[in-house]
UniProtKB/TrEMBL annotation, chain A:
Cross-referenced Gene3D superfamilies: Pyruvate-ferredoxin oxidoreductase, PFOR, domain III
Domain called Pyruvate/ketoisovalerate oxidoreductase catalytic: residue spans: 10-177
Keyword RNA-binding belongs to the record: no
The keyword Signal appears for this protein: no
InterPro entries assigned: Oxidoreductase_gamma_subunit, PadE, PorC_KorC, Pyrv/ketoisovalerate_OxRed_cat, Pyrv_flavodox_OxRed_cen
Name the record gives this protein: Pyruvate ferredoxin oxidoreductase gamma subunit/phenylglyoxylate dehydrogenase gamma subunit
Organism in which the protein naturally occurs: Aromatoleum tolulyticum
Domain of life (superkingdom): Bacteria
Membrane-spanning intervals of the chain: none
Keywords, comma-separated and alphabetical: Oxidoreductase, Pyruvate
MF (Gene Ontology): oxidoreductase activity, acting on the aldehyde or oxo group of donors, iron-sulfur protein as acceptor
UniProtKB/TrEMBL annotation, chain B:
Gene3D superfamilies: 3.40.50.920, 3.40.50.970
Highest classification ranks of the organism: Bacteria, Pseudomonadati, Pseudomonadota, Betaproteobacteria, Rhodocyclales
Pfam family, one: POR_N
GO molecular function: oxidoreductase activity, acting on the aldehyde or oxo group of donors
InterPro entries: PadG, PFOR_II, Pyruvate:ferred/Flavod_OxRd, Pyrv_Fd/Flavodoxin_OxRdtase_N, THDP-binding, Transketo_C/PFOR_II
Gene source species: Aromatoleum tolulyticum
Domain Pyruvate:ferredoxin oxidoreductase core: 286-390
Keyword annotations: Oxidoreductase, Pyruvate
The protein, known as: Pyruvate ferredoxin oxidoreductase alpha subunit/phenylglyoxylate dehydrogenase alpha subunit
Amino acid sequence: MYEVRFHGRGGQGSVMASGILAAAMVEEGKYAVSIPSFGFERRGAPVVSFLRMSEREIRQLTNIYQPDCIVCVDPTLMKSVDIFAGMKAGGTLVQATHQPLSELTLPDCVTTVGLLDAVKIALEIFKRPITNTLMLGAFARTTGVVSLDSLKRALEDSDFRDAGLAQNMTALERGYAEVVVHQIERRAAA
Amino acid sequence: MTTATLEKTAAAEAPRKQKVILAEGNEAAALGVALARPDMVSVYPITPQSSLVEHLAKLIADGRMDADIVDAEGEHSVLSVLQGGALAGARTYTATCGPGLAFMFEPYFRTSGMRLPIVLTIVTRDGITPQSVWGGHQDAMTVREAGWIQVYCESVQEVLDTTVMAFKIAEHHDVMLPVNVCLDGNYLSYGASRVELPDQADVDAFMGEKNVNWHVALDPLRPMAVDPLTGGTTGKGPQTFVRYRKGQCRGMQNALSVIEEVHADWAKRIGRSFAPLVEEYRLDDAEFAIMTLGSMTGAAKDAVDEARDAGKKVGLIKIKTFSPFPVDALMKALGKVKALGVIDRSVGFRWNCGPMYQETLGVLYRLGRHIPSMSFIGGLAGADITIPHVHRVIADTEALLNGAPAPTEPVWLNEQD
């Protein structure tokens, strides 16, 4: 079982990203479940979505409390929400940010980091700070648990059409190509 | 019959290839509706609604579903519109929840009395007040005594498959009753899973001929008084009323075997089996059991597996058909265990316990064997019922088995979350 928690703000498409990623995993013959934390979310408010992937049928339909990976599609969220709550040791962070690794304060549970200046690229592609598909590309490259091709096929099967589809394809590819992946060596506790 | 003919028959009956897709529960319900080919859908497309009707509207707009869709001015009108459609011979469908279901109540009660086989998905939601838009079974439980069949689903696949089966059950001539397919708000409705989409030709063969208004109709060629005035102090009036009520009760009891037959036929034609009334999971050699309803069941099965690995002799009983209450099937399951913990996702205010627990007490009485039991209430207003929550249920129920006194109040699973 591989568990991912998406963090974003209402309107950025993190719930949709979680769904497209699940569809890509199903496309690869795996089992996947994506559950958004839903309610009266409005634009700008922090939102969460949960994704499980497994080679076997997934029975539990619950939120995720100990993720293997956190995808944060918003660069400012880390300041207001504890996105790392419950994260497993040896976990992976895929973060939208313009900052280099040295300027981020990360807990010890994080050992793999994928950083992407997603807002800057989104403004170039969409003229709006929509970072979700960019971050899916970054996720694929950082974790290797899903292929870029499967993500593209899932995107083709989604509700995107014409120019919107082409832009999102570009976003997937640029996210994949431009993410900077770091491995953090943690010294064992003395 | 020659071997060659046998093989040919077998090949013709094997389910056709099923497309694998990712769908949220609301989309799966809409796809199930489309497969059942209703003639008429009516909805009130605003809060409290869900994406279910958006998916339906899109299927109709895209030409993938050939049904009239009526945007009525409120849920009361929605069900009234469908009553007219059903009386005219149409296969009819709607979806609602919470306050929408409450506003629908007057025609809701009338639907079962007129024996109209309307299918209504309840995307279950907790009751207000206090204000909440999140999931829970309180809305469906509140209307459980209105003569509708109510089935609860565990997974998105079960939502899709059960939605199709619901029409077949409702329209069976020994039943002729409306059906609620209850699908847990949030965890199932917006939870997206891998599902297999049955082939339309297989579903068409499963559904067979439609005949929904042979008994009561708005039809100029068969003029009749529909929903006549009955009741009163003596004579024909109250006799007629009693005949209606007895017929409804008989239809509900007939539904138990029909639900089993329809599930068996679905398994044969489509290739997927679900326990129709009561599912027994790891129960045969269990000493005690936990009981579940709806989407909490998956996590509960995982917890039971973990507890088994730790040497605890626990099994699980899942109720799928809540109305009619599957008394005989549940007696058979309860006869295997010596202690029971029941998890409800709603509140029974009168008994200070969960409603499913209260119903189960009646079954235990009929079983004639006292076993210690207790009520757990969790997952209210969107709260999660996780594997650790279920482990608490297992531990408390095991304590009952070992002689601990049964509490007189329910355990509120999310009180300290």
